[in-house]
Amino acid sequence: MGSGIWVLTLLILHSVFEGIAGQEQELNHRTERISGSAGDVLEDDPVGRLKVFVYELPSKYNKKILQKDPRCLNHMFAAEIYMHWFLLSSPVRTFNPEEADWFYTPVYTTCDLTPSGLPLPFKSPRMMRSAIELISTNWPYWNRTEGADHFFVVPHDFGACFHYQEEKAIERGILHMLKRATLVQTFGQRNHVCLKDGSITIPPYAPPQKMQTHLIPPDTPRSIFVYFRGLFYDVGNDPEGGYYARGARASVWENFKNNPLFDISTDHPTTYYEDMQRAVFCLCPLGWAPWSPRLVEAVVFGCIPVVIADDIVLPFADAIPWEEIGVFVAEEDVPKLDTILTSIPIEVILRKQRLLANPSMKQAMLFPQPAQPGDAFHQILNGLARKLPHDKNVYLKPGQKILNWTAGPVGDLKPW
Amino acid sequence: MKQTAGQHPNRRPYSAAVPGEAAALRPPSFLFWSAVHVLCCLVSAALGFRFSRLLFLLLFSPASHHHNHHHHVHLVRQPPAAVIPFPPPPPPAVAGRVGVGRHGIRVRPWPRPDPAEVARAHEILVRLQKEQRLRYGVKDPRPVVVVTPTYARTFQALHLTGLLHSLMLVPYPLTWLVVEAGGVSNETAALLAHSSLPVVHLPFHEDMPVLWNDRHRFEARMRLRALRVIRERRLDGIVVFADDSNVHTMELFDEIQKVQWMGALSVGILAHSAAPDATAKRQQRASEQETSPLPIQGPACNSSGQLIGWHTFNYLPYAKKAATFVGDGVTVLPTKLEWAGFVLNSRLLWKEAEGKPNWARDLDEVGISGEEIESPLDLLKDASFVEPLGNCGKKVLLWWLRAEARYDSKFPSRWVIDPPLEIVVPAKRTPWPDAPPDLPYQRIANEGGHVEKHVSKKVRSYRSKRSSRNKKKHETHVDTQVSEMSSAQEK
Q1: Could you tell me the keywords of this UniProt record (chain A) (predicted)?
Q2: ipTM
């Protein structure tokens, strides 16, 4: 009789655990855990793992610029502003600079907009240089490491090269003063001057509220095979063709404009977000720079991103296994894009959709207001935390100087 | 959106204003080169295109002009002179694989879609949509039982084929009960054989009446016959009343899965008017300003989503212009509440079913002793338990439409002309006069049975170059046509 009761309790416990495991399996069947090369880090909580000190700069570096042009809050470079606001009220902020691991300088370099809303980078090097001069004279922490434990958010087209034209950006190179600092930028391309080792690539800003309001029921069948809306030729700046997007976008148009599987055009439809949710593949080709908010939109709407940009480094590349989530097509293979996409095995496509359906993946691409756990702000902090502890040799010996304060083009040395 | 799709449309408006451009050279070679440049510009202006490319091609291009690359590089937007490969691009400024500067636009030689690939893409889409339905769609879908009254007539092929294709797209297991007036006919059977759906073809051994009011009642009796079959065979599922001329959306079949016992949907009424005259138009315009342009029949709810009444069809604008019989030239109007707007759980019809509510009448008692069944609400004792579907009737999921040819119109059997017409000679005069003839029924009603031979037999005989055998065939064909016409007159 006693053994019977034992057997019964064992059976009950077994079935209970089986039930739990079954439920987890069902959850896994719908979405999959995302683990990149750094491991399963998307859901890590940075609080307690690092401390950030925010310099108090005069408002001419941040508040006044924003007041002059509030459009900076909505364009794709708005991450620098939202990162500042996030850090001001975040639990990782510390008011004691002696215990800080990282130092943040809030300078809005991408907020000098033309009337049509494009940021002009011509004053940005001077502004950055002026800010660094300020912090190096008022606080001792810059000179202690020459910026090696400081980080800056530079979301412009080519990061800290501060130019929109690639040749000019390459010519300028990264601003000399930022040689030792960690750069948090949207631009990422391997073997490129404007991406230095140890940078953290982030997604461009896409308005999360706006995307939320355009969600459609998930059982709407995905009936568009490939979707893209945008320019193929930039007639204003590249009248002969061949420069814009290294000819890749033009190649997409010329090869597939008659293909019924490809819904591509230069339209600006009001149902852009809804259409993306009805598409299986969304093209994310390079433009003047390799990155674009299309990647963020594709991930949020569950459309598999087809990245056509050679050597691109995607956001949070060590936390998100982009190879398993998106499709990468070399620019020279664009004429074969239809063959490539239709010959992907169906299980692979289903797996990619499952990975995209994971809510932590979508959260990691967004900058919501107010901040939520797992969002891009936290991923940036996680990235910074993974770089800790600092190497001993970042701390300079007294009197040692590495940076040359007169390096760079002459125009940069003028005060701002 | 603008920011994403635009990607800096006016990217470099200030390139001229970039400070710190390299200072110009001053030696005399500069003057020489600028003179050459001016000369080249003038020549280009004269010729109409940039001839420097042509020059480079002729002077410097290697012999590999006609390499048979799979995707050879050529610029598409050249002047139509030639397909010219590029002069070699400037060496990349970066020691990496990807270089800045001009690149060719790669176009494959025959940029047309490959049908095999398109087929594969469609297979992928089908599989993905199935997966989507599994993940987000209805859990434990119930089978669907479709009840359709029909009869063989001119427009049957049109309507029934449309309904057939709609039902073939339904992703749930389906049983189709087709009740045919006048018994089972080859016409209908041939149409139904085109699908692989499980069809139960039920005969109803009376002929379809001609007057619309009679017809509505008749159809109700046909549907009751089908419901009795469901009861006998204990078919399980959700009963949908799909008339063959109605138009159904696929979302309808997803929405009805939510029904517990009996549900009501909104039906859009496409009551077309054939030839509205001035007064009707004015009335219509006045009424349209107040109500929505499409009349809708369906459940009406209060703000908390409970059923409080029914939206029915407003007959006033059509007071004088309603069709009375099939094939009348004027608007056909629906009944107050169409059967199509209701769905039932088939267990409501069974003799005994678990959890069957007591507000439903037993099917055996319905319809006997001459009771008139107008709408499925007559199957219930209490109509307040009907569940409103489709976001409480706000979403229109099907449309009611009645478009029929004249009731005596003829069509070739199974829409196949056999034997095929070899020579068709247009008749100089059509067999029927230009004015629409009085319909036989009307004439009988007006003149009390007096039949006129209204139409002259003005059919031309066919001329055939073939043998006499063919001639006979044609003549018999003509004769049958003429005899059909005369028999039509005599009805």
Answers
A1: Glycosyltransferase, Golgi apparatus, Signal, Signal-anchor, Transferase, Transmembrane
A2: 0.84
